[in-house]
Amino acid sequence: MKLFGYYRSSTSYRLRIALNLKQLDYDYVPVNLVTSEQKGEAYTARNPFGSVPLLEADGRERAQSMAQLEWLDEAYPERPLLPDGIEQRFTARELAYAIATETHAPNNLQVLKYLKEHFGASQDQIDTWYRHWLTRTFTPIEARLAQLGTGDYLFDQPGLFEVVLLPQVYNARRFALDLSATPHIARIEAACLALPEFQRAHPDNQPDNPEFSGPEKD
Amino acid sequence: MKLFGYYRSSTSYRLRIALNLKQLDYDYVPVNLVTSEQKGEAYTARNPFGSVPLLEADGRERAQSMAQLEWLDEAYPERPLLPDGIEQRFTARELAYAIATETHAPNNLQVLKYLKEHFGASQDQIDTWYRHWLTRTFTPIEARLAQLGTGDYLFDQPGLFEVVLLPQVYNARRFALDLSATPHIARIEAACLALPEFQRAHPDNQPDNPEFSGPEKD
């Protein structure tokens, strides 16, 4: 498999975690979003959406991270991202899709660019916007996690929810969002970041991160 | 089942279509987004996300439309929204999730309100924004549909893709987007609008639409 991605793209980060959790090998192909490489003809010929991540797998170029994750779990059912029971699957998806649609989407790089270019948004305004959509979803997710009595993970082991949550927690840290009001989220973050599958997927450890200094020594 | 929704909310419209296609009865409970009823305590006690649609079904209050649709298809497998084959399921989800995350999300009413309140966006600027995100996703979807040689529907009968597409085509018409460049989308729209399942789900035919004049006569 080939994963076309960008180190700081939270949707690319989702796929890296998921592939690691499922123990599926992949080659990582960096696509530079800052120079708009994803809008170039070479790339849009592969992916008309002009987005990352793109997963080249089983003879097909696959766009859209949530569709990729659902597909991975159906095509490679070992080490599932979604639990077995229909109700548990709903629980995971409700929280994962809340992040995918209500937080990630308005905070996407393309949206932020539009705000700067068409509304003259300052960096302060961007930061406020960014934290607004994070808080707006983290607060009800925290409420749901409290209702569910969640431990280190939503279920016994990390899956679809953690795959989608951790990249947003990374963004929350970058944008200096205070997570003290969301202790369940902070606890899940700590538990996941202790796992090698999440560590290897982290933006700090990607070759296209300008601050990347090579694989960590054992 | 009870569906809490708003006539013009495109995610509520998704659920109405899906429930009709699956021939599942439901009571429709209008929630007035214009007066922010969804932010009131009575409603957020049911749905901490403060969003529509909310599906009360099988003893549980379920938020997040994409999770609701996936759940409906697992809990009520008759008249499936997703096809059988893993590859076909990916095809449907890639296109459906593109709309859910890249078009619907930035054009959500909450985002438009934020643009007006914090960036002083004029109605012209809102309209341009709105059409921008529609076009940005409709164009690659049209490319995919052309690649797939799509007919009246993505597959033999309408399913997840059409459930998510039609509400956005309705929005496109409201915002005067020219659909002549996307003939596959326009053809799917015409085929779906001819079906009673889509007609009954249409915003024009909901009791909370101020212009609603009662059920159509036979």
Automatic annotation (TrEMBL), chains A, B:
Keywords, ordered alphabetically: Isomerase
Superkingdom, taxonomy of origin: Bacteria
GO MF assignments: glutathione transferase activity; maleylacetoacetate isomerase activity
Record bears the keyword Isomerase: yes
InterPro entries: Glutathione-S-Trfase_C-like (IPR010987), Glutathione-S-Trfase_C_sf (IPR036282), Glutathione_S-Trfase (IPR040079), Glutathione_S-Trfase_N (IPR004045), GST_Zeta (IPR005955), GST_Zeta_C (IPR034330), GST_Zeta_N (IPR034333), Thioredoxin-like_sf (IPR036249)
One GO term of the biological process aspect: glutathione metabolic process
UniProt domain GST C-terminal: residue ranges: 85-211
Keyword Plastid: no
Pfam families: GST_N_2 (PF13409)
CC terms in the record's Gene Ontology section: cytoplasm
This enzyme's EC code(s): 5.2.1.2
Residue span, GST N-terminal domain: 1-80
Family membership noted in the UniProt record: Belongs to the GST superfamily. Zeta family.
PANTHER family to which the protein is assigned, alphabetical: MALEYLACETOACETATE ISOMERASE (PTHR42673)
Name the record gives this protein: Maleylacetoacetate isomerase
The species this protein was found in: Pelagerythrobacter aerophilus
Gene that produces this protein: maiA
